[in-house]
Design brief:
The protein is about 45% helix and about 15% strand. It has 11 helices and 12 strands. Helix 2 runs parallel beside helix 10, helix 3 packs parallel to helix 4 and helix 8 crosses helix 9. The chain is elongated, with a radius of gyration of 21 Å. It starts with a helix and ends in a 7-residue tail after the last helix.
């Protein structure tokens, strides 16, 4: 028993000296855990509804005091939210790391303050080597980018010399760069040209940008939208431009489901956002209560939603999917 006590004391001391958060003691466990959950976009972005639903369900399950905040696509505001969480001495923070550099300092500051931090949905491109966060719950963007592009090539006979329009909400964001890396790899292998264009998160603005691109580039043979906003508005943009070209991309919304059912949208990558929110909170709880270190989780794997399986997810869009 003395050996075990010495071992526990040594591990605790090493964790403290290393600036790592450690599990709470028995007295602290009488109070609910306080976790701040920071979404980088604003509350109007449909994709994040099931992400937050998952976080809230996990919080209810484990009796967590959950504070959901939105960064409104502003890195300065997001950093301020993390700083506020540190000042408020929360137990854990779940946050998207959509920029490789913008959040490095403040996340390390939170870890040094004894706060457990995990990332969800978007992570530093270098993973743990690029940011102090403990683990990431999200999808492999490069692999799924390659997957959807390869699927579009095969399904529609895209060939050398064709051109693909690749719209995305925030082209400078990590998710955009990594998804495009995968998409471009598949297209380049087939001799197909591509162009990445930023649209912003507003649906109306995104539709206008996409329609204007198509009008200015009538040689476009397909669209691969790298975000829910872009794929949701793509059918209207194509119609506005008076074109008839295939489209596919990422995420699930009511509009994307309708497009698949109507045969307008070929397929979409489902990254299972509910899991990202649920497991971000769950892993923080397991760490803070029991010392179980968070693990990276690839949500969604390499799954596509198309006409063959759209019925199985339709009723869950906006809640669990």
């Amino acid at each position: 028993m003395k050996t075990l006590i010495r071992l526990i004391t040594l591990v605790t001391l090493v964790a403290v000296l290393a600036g790592l958060p450690i599990a709470r003691n028995a007295a602290a466990q009488d109070d609910p855990l306080k976790i701040t959950f920071i979404v980088y976009a604003d509350a109007s972005v449909e994709f994040f509804v099931p992400v937050v639903q998952g976080a809230e369900d996990a919080a209810e399950l484990f009796g967590v005091d959950l504070d959901v905040q939105y960064g409104n696509s502003d890195p300065v505001q997001q950093n301020d939210l993390i700083e506020s969480a540190i000042v408020n001495e929360v137990d854990g923070i779940a946050v998207s790391i959509q920029d490789n550099d913008a959040f490095d300092e403040v996340v390390c500051k939170a870890i040094d303050a004894g706060i457990a931090v995990v990332s969800f949905n978007v992570d530093d491109a270098e993973g743990a080597a690029g940011n102090c966060r403990m683990a990431f719950m999200g999808q492999n963007f490069v692999d799924t980018g390659y997957l959807i592009a390869s699927h579009m090539i095969e399904e529609h006979g895209l060939k050398e010399g064709d051109h693909v329009f690749v719209p995305v909400e925030a082209p400078e964001a990590v998710y955009a760069q990594l998804r495009f890396e995968g998409v471009k790899k598949a297209l380049d292998e087939a001799g197909i040209t591509s162009e990445l264009v930023g649209t912003g998160f507003n649906l109306a603005d995104a539709q206008t940008t996409e329609a204007q691109y198509l009008l200015g580039h009538p040689e476009t043979d397909a669209i691969i939208g790298l975000g829910s906003v872009n794929l949701s508005v793509a059918p209207m943009a194509v119609q506005e431009a008076g074109m008839d070209i295939p489209m596919g991309g990422y995420d699930l919304t009511d509009d994307i489901i309708a497009g698949i059912e109507d045969g307008v949208i070929t397929a979409t990558v489902d990254q299972q956002p509910y899991s990202q929110g649920f497991y971000a909170v769950t892993q923080l709880v397991l760490y803070l209560e029991y010392g179980l270190y968070p693990s990276d989780m690839d949500t969604g794997g390499l799954g596509l939603v198309d006409a063959s399986n759209v019925a199985t997810v339709k009723e869950l869009v906006g809640t669990i999917r």
